[in-house]
Every structure is written in C-alpha cells, then in structure tokens.
Amino acid sequence: MKKGTLLAATLGALTLIFVAIGTIWPSESALRNAGAQRSVLRPSSTPQAAVENLADQIRNKAWAKAYGSLANKAEFTQSQFEHDLTGNYPSLLTYSTLDKFDVRSLHASADEADMELKLHWATVVGIAVVTRDIHLVRNGDRWQAAWPVAKQSGLPAQVIPVNYLRWDVIYRGAADDWGSQDVEAPHVRIVDMHPVERADGVVILGELLNEDVVPAYVTISATLLSKTKTPLATEGSFDKISHLLLPKQVTPFLIKFPNASLADVGGIRMTPLSSLVAASADPVIELADEQLHPAPDASLTGQLINQSGQIVNVAHVLGTFYDKNGNVVWVADQYVDQALLPQTPIPFQIHIPEDLARTISSQRTVVATYQSGGNL
Amino acid sequence: MKSGLTIVLSGLALAATQLALAQGASLTVPKSIQAGSAFSIPSTGSGSATLYIIGPGQALKRDVQLGQATDFAAGTLYNAGRYLAVLSGGSAPETDAFDVVPAKSPSTVSFLAKPSRLPVGLHNGITGAAYVFDAYHNLIVTPMPVSFELSTPSGVVQRTVESNKGVAWTALDSTEHQGIDRFVAHIGDVSTTRIVGQVPGDPCGLKMSARQDGQRLDLATEPVRDCKGNAVPDGTIVTFTETFRGGLSTVDVPIKRGVAEVQMPIVNGATISVASGVVMGNQIGWGK
User: Fold this and answer.
1) Mind listing the pLDDT tens digit for each residue in A320-357?
2) What is the ipTM metric for this complex?
3) Domain that holds residue B259
4) Between these two residues, A374 and A319, which has the higher pLDDT value?
5) What is the rounded CA–CA span in Å between residue A160 and residue B279?
C-alpha cells in the first residue's frame, strides 16, 4: 500500500515537472500547433531574431502582427504586404503554407543589418523557394525589418479583344449500335526518345508530337524489358510533360526508373496515350530572353509574358535540352509561383544538372498554363 | 389400401393406351427453313405426342396429333442455326435435325468505317467493312454484292465488293481536298452512312514576314497551307523563335483566320525562324 502511494506520488510529481518544462520551453512543432508565435517568447534583440520572428508570423499567417513589426510599414498597406507574399491573384502561393525558412546574415553593423530570408513554401506541386534580402534597423533595444515589397505595376483599364478559339467534342451516344462510329482519338507520335543512365537510376527522355488537327490530352508510360523481354518495371511521366497538346505542338517528357540500371535492360516499350478533350487555343505565352547559364549553378532563365487578356494562375515551364547533334540530353521543369498577368513579364529559372551543363548546346521551352475554374 | 391399388392400376392402363396410340410415330422435318418463315412438320402414326424444337436461343413445345402436320406461323423460328426436333410420347423419342438459315433479303448493314478523321492524300487510308444482316439480325453468309460509295467534295468514288461469309470490305484513298465525306455501304435498298473527315496534312512552304512596330516586331505568316493547297485549320500551333547573341525568345501561336501572328522584341542581329510541328519555315535576319 505504501509502495503504491509512493509510485503515484512520483508519477504525479514527474507529470507536473514535464508540463512546466513544456510550457516554459516549448518545442517548435508544439508552438506551431498551438498557433503561438516565437516573437512572444523571444525578443527581437538581434537581427537574426527579428527576421526569425517575422518569418514565424508569416508562417502563422499573422499578417497584422507581421505588418505591425515592420520598420517601413508607412510605405505600403497591410494588404499590399500580404499580397506581396501570397500574390495579388490566385497562384501557387495562394494555396501554400510556409514549411520552413532559412535566415543568413549578409552584413551587420551596430545599427543596421542585411539578412537573407529564404522562404520554403509548401505548394501543391512541391516546395517553392522564395528568397528576399531584408534590411534591418536598430530601434532602441530591438531590431525592425524593412520589408522589400515588390509593388506590381498595374495595367491600365482596357479591353483586349481575343478571337477565342476552342474545340468541343461530341462523343457517340449510348443508343448507337456496335458498328457506329466514334470520334477518332488524336494521332500522336514520339519524335525522339533516349534512355539515359543516371546515378539514381534510368531516365527516359524524349519528345511527343500531336500530328493531328485536334487538341489532345496526352500521357506517356514506358516499360523496361529485360534481356529475355520480360517486363522489369513500368513508370509514367507524371507531370514531366505538357499534358495538353494543341495541333502540331511538341512536348518533352521525362520518365524516371529509380534504382534501375541500363545494363539490365534489353528493350523499352513506350506507350503514348491520347484522348480528345475540349480545349482552348489561348492564352499565348511568350518565352522571352531565354538564356543558358553554364556551371556552376547551371540554369535556363527567361521571362514569361502573357500575350492574352486572361490571367494565368499557374504556369509550368518545361525545358528540353539538346547536345550539339540535336539529341535530347535532359528535360527539366519549373512551376512559376506567381500568376501571369497580361503583358507582364514574370521570370523563371530552370536548374540543369551540373554534369550535363557542358554537353548542352541548345534548348527548347514550352509552357503549360492553368486557369482557376479548371480550364486548361 | 383398396383405393391406392385402384389408382396404380388405372395409371398403368392409361400409359398402356398412350403407348399403343403413339406406336409407329415418325417426323418429316424440312432440311432447312428461312428464318422467320412459316413452316410445317408432318408426322406419321396415330395418337398424341409432344413435339419439342430446341435451337440457338429458342425452345418450343407443342402437343401434336400424330398423322397430321404441325404448322408453325411466320416469325416462330428466327435465330439462324442448327435445331433439333424431338417427338416424345412413344417408347423411344423420335429426333431429327434441321437448319434455320438467314433470310435472303438483307434488312440492315452494320458498317465499320475507319478512321473517322485522316489527312488528305493517303493511299488506302479509308477502310470500310460491311456486315449484312436479315430482319432478325442473322448474318447473311451467302455472297451478295455490297456497294461502297465515298462522296467527297471533289467527286464520288464507288466500288462494289461481293460479301464473303457475311462480310464485305474495301480500302479507298483519301482525296487531295479536305472536307467532310459521306461513306455509304449499300446493299439493295438498304444502306448505312458514316462520316469521314479529311483534314489537311502538315504545313508546306511555311513563310513569314516581319514588320517593325515601334519597339516590337510584328511577325505574321502567309496563309498556312498543306502541300495539296488545303488551308491548315485554325488552332494549329506555329512556333516563332528569335535567336540573338546569348539568348532566344520563343512563342507558340495558334493559327487564327488562316495565319499565325505575334509580336516579338526587336533585337538587332537577331535571326527569326518559324516552324510548325516538325516542319521548318523560312528565316529572317533582322538588322544585319
């Protein structure tokens, strides 16, 4: 009886001690789940702490508190600050959350500092990294960040005439007999295909052409065959392809086979699939000023300019990279996290593997666009 | 006990009477009959019996008076195939087989035309297969002439093919002119129509011109046509590429009203090229 009482008292005391520890020194995840902010517990007594507090408030979507802590809030409104981070129009960032951030000191003195804030946004298509250089000023015993708001130049009010071009499809009805005809699926053709051995497995690269006069929704899969022609593995291109192909349009594709080796492969079976879809020929996107940058940090940069009148919410840029003989050596992509406003250039950057950068002599880029409301 | 014995004895007496009546019964079944036609099956013997007819998808049962013909009205047997007639009632059932063959006159033609859309100028690009059926959906296997007729904007192509085992097929070239074709399979006064779209092929002789408009360059193709002179349909993608020192700009533009137009930045020394699919067009050097 005495032993039981002692055990109960010990467990009770330990519980109280742990609750006290958790309350006084909470973990990061517990803070986040509770919706609390680190600034409450950590004063902005250093530039690092000030930027971390600001990033925490952004993560918690505590816009009023984040805006209130800025040194240059007189230069813009809270709404402009919020839209600067999440976009003025629905885009990838609108539906994302801040997963984590990195803070790096660029320069510091007694009263001023420059910090680099790298925001890792978790979007529906993966992590989007946004980097901002923040200037901080000392105000008494605390530091305040001056947010580098990027004000978007608005377009003058106008009407942009568009000759709207669209395809609709009427399929056979349920009452038709078995001999009756259905609309033909679009004819697509693989115009290039190369298997490549990489450190993490086999990659199949290529290009697919819609050679028909109707739009096609395309997917492609590949099956690796062994030396005895038995299937080893089947994979699809997932989003490493532009799924909507207008007539005579070409898309690159990339299919990954992790942990596979070309030495085991005796053949490859490609299966392109196409189906008719209702589609629109607009918007037209110009890829301007595309430039290949050599290693280190090899990349393709450029600007997207929406030449149509409608807003593009999500743009997916796919780059096809060729060697000097015109063979496809790599396919890479990037989702642009900002909406494309009419006639407004938006930069993009596609990273290229360092080991391939030297072999690349030319490239071709296509853009797949998505508008809110589900229109392709 | 007495009543039970009476019932058993009465049953045996009735059976013996039936057996006696059905003695010497036989059937005379026609070797073949047309689906849906009226027919009769004569029998010999005396007394009553039961006639069963069993075939593909059908089974009939009739009480018959032996020595008389049993009549079947038109439309009674309509599925083509092998049938078995069984006369039951004697010591051993009398059986005979016969065929129900499809009616001679075709009623419907199931027509498979492929493809529904193809480029112009394709040899044997259009195929049609016609299956001839009678009014009861039996495939008519006796050879009969099937006429295929392809009406295109540039004329009519006709071909007659004799069906073999119920099927007639043909292959025709697509013409040089785009348009909607009517592909008809005729047999007698029965016909079925399919629509085949002949569409332009790849662009041919793609040519663009450039005109300065302020700080931009207006690029426009000439009306885009295929090698047969057909206008390439609106919506077809034309790619303009401007290559300059250290970079390039590209735009995928859909053809609208027969031409593809775009504005691109002016860069002195740039080379502008145009392409559609795998077809290259001309090049323009700007400011060289």
Assistant:
1) 999 999 899 999 999 999 899 988 999 999 999 999 99
2) 0.76
3) 208-286
4) A319
5) 31
Q: Are residues A271 and A357 in the same domain?
A: no
Q: What is the pLDDT of residues A8-30, one digit of tens each?
A: 899 999 998 888 887 777 666 66
Map tokens 């060289």 to a residue: B288
Taking an 8 Å cut-off on Cβ atoms, the answer to whether A248 and B276 are in contact is yes
pLDDT of residue B273: 95
The pLDDT of A87-115, averaged and rounded, is: 91
> What is the pLDDT, as a whole number, of residue B1?
42
Question: Which of B202, B232, B248 is nearest residue A290 as measured by Cβ atoms?
Answer: B248
Angle at B81 between CA B143 and CA B130, to 5 degrees: 35
Locate B106 and state its tokens: 């075709």
The answer to whether the Cβ–Cβ distance between B257 and A213 falls below 8 Å is no
Q: What is the pLDDT of residue A375?
A: 44
Give the residue from B216, B236, B253, B267 with the most A CB atoms within 10 Å of its CB, the best one to mutate: B236
Are B278 and A209 a contacting pair, CB within 8 Å?
yes
Where a domain ends, among B71, B101, B131? B101
* Chain B closest-CA separation from residue A238 CA (Å): 23
Full residue range of the structural domain in which residue A204 is found: 182-279
Q: Is residue A18 part of a domain?
A: no
- CATH classification at residue A87: 3.10.450.100
The DSSP call for residue A171 is: P
Question: Does the beta-carbon distance from B256 to A247 stay under 8 Å?
Answer: no
Phi, psi for residue B150 in degrees, rounded to 5 = -110, 110
Interchain proximity A249–B199, CB inside 8 Å: no
Q: What is the pLDDT of residue A178?
A: 66
**Nearest beta carbon to residue A247 from set B236, B256, B278:** B236
User: Rounded CA gap, A352 and A355, in Å?
Assistant: 9
Please report, to the nearest 10 degrees, the dihedral formed by the alpha carbons of residues A355, A358, A361, A364 taken in order: 30
pTM of the model: 0.77
Q: What is the pLDDT of residue A105?
A: 93
Q: CB of A207 within 8 Å of any CB in chain B?
A: no
- Segment A131-145 mean pLDDT: 92
Kindly provide the residue ranges of all beta strands, DSSP E only, lying in A199-327, ordered along the sequence: 201-210, 216-225, 231-236, 244-245, 250-258, 267-276, 279-280, 285-293, 299-306, 314-322
Q: Which residue from B minimizes the CA distance to A292?
A: B247
Q: What share of chain A is helix, strand, coil (3-state, %, to 5)?
A: 20, 40, 40
Print burial letters for B176-204: b (CB count within 10 Å at least 16), e (below 16): bbbeebebbbbbeebebebebbbbbbbbb
- Residues of chain A in contact with residue B237, where contact means CB-CB under 8 angstroms, are 246-249
Burial B91-124 (b: 16+ CB within 10 A, else e): eeebebebebbbbeebbbbbbbbebbbbbbbeee
Contacts of B252 in chain A (CB under 8 A): 246, 249, 284-285, 366-367
**What sections of chain B are H helices per DSSP?**
2-21
Query: At B200, which amino acid appears?
Result: P
Residue B190 lies in a domain: yes
In a domain, A252, yes or no: yes
Write the CA distances from A7 to A16, A17, B252, integer angstroms.
14, 15, 76
Instruction: With a cut of 80, say whether residue B74 has pLDDT above it.
Output: yes
Q: Does A364 touch chain B (CB under 8 A)?
A: yes
